[in-house]
Specification:
Blueprint: H1 2-47, H2 52-63, E1 71-77, H3 82-93, E2 100-106, H4 112-124, E3 128-132, H5 138-147, E4 154-157, E5 163-164, H6 168-178, E6 184-192, E7 198-202, H7 209-214, E8 222-225, H8 226-232, H9 243-252, E9 260-271, H10 286-301, E10 306-310, E11 316-320, E12 326-327, E13 332-333
Parallel strand pairs: 1-2, 1-4, 2-3, 6-9
Antiparallel strand pairs: 4-8, 5-9, 6-7, 6-8, 10-11, 12-13
Helix pairs in contact: 3-4, 9-10
Amino acid sequence: MNVLRRKTRRAIEIWKMRGWLGVKEHTKQLYRKRREEKVYLKWIRKFDTLTDGDREQIRQKIRGFKLKPLISVVMPIYNIEEKWLRLCIESVIKQLYGNWELCIADDHSPSPHVRKVLEEYAAKDKRIKVIFRAENGHISAASNSALELATGEFVALLDHDDELAEHALFYVAEEINRFPETEMIYSDEDMIGENGRRYEPKFKPDWSRDLFYSLNLITHLSVYRTEVLQRIGGFRAGLEGSQDYDLALRVIEQIPENHIRHIPKILYHWRAIRGSVAYSSEEKPYAHERAREAIRQHLERSEKKAIVRQTVYNLHRVQYELPADFDKNNCRRNPK
């Protein structure tokens, strides 16, 4: 009944703003979205569902790895509902690749269940490390507190309401074995609703700097060599909401592009609940301008003259300043 009431209220809002044509277009979009979700569920069943045989093959591959790096999963927490917190932690515990540590920083959550759950899991598994911050510092400060607990060669970032695919860290370790010089890794991802239904997959391309300047191509799952994060000083305060974008922009200033690897697998499930950007990009509107500010600062550090503006769907547009000797008619520099 609540769902029907919410849909009816939304239809009335659209009708008031855009009339019947707006309601018609909204209905078409809902139908298209539902159809795409059905297609994606078929894809999951066919290509992204592990059997017991698949799991055993993965375990055999892990036993044969030359490199078995410790992967520190870094997770800041603030006042998250208990069910999402448990699902998130369980997704790490269930990893087929077992050489991990979960580094959690609670950002002074007022809800008592948070401490109780974290202490429960830390007591059950020695790989889970927890720090309770004495005051709330927001996500960048909390992420840095969690990062201070990390002793692994690589750091994987995880939000407190999301889930890792059970083979996520296996593919990360496999990529490191294939390309030992790797310093930055990202994977494909999808959304996961409150009912556990997965939808809206993001099948990403290999590394593209220009595309990365238009949107945060990295997001989830992102993995970094720990030494690089320590070198740049971790997360920066003041860019909360796009602190992960800013982190990646500062990392790419430090490493060659052939040390950036893309794993074309959906290894991360981004939880869509009210209050999260996964639910709606408008849940945290300030994040978009902070992303553009992070890009501006990156371009300044890289000594590139450009203007960063908002474009469609809150994406970003970087317009480079043309050289003084540029011939606009022939689209080339004038010969000296």
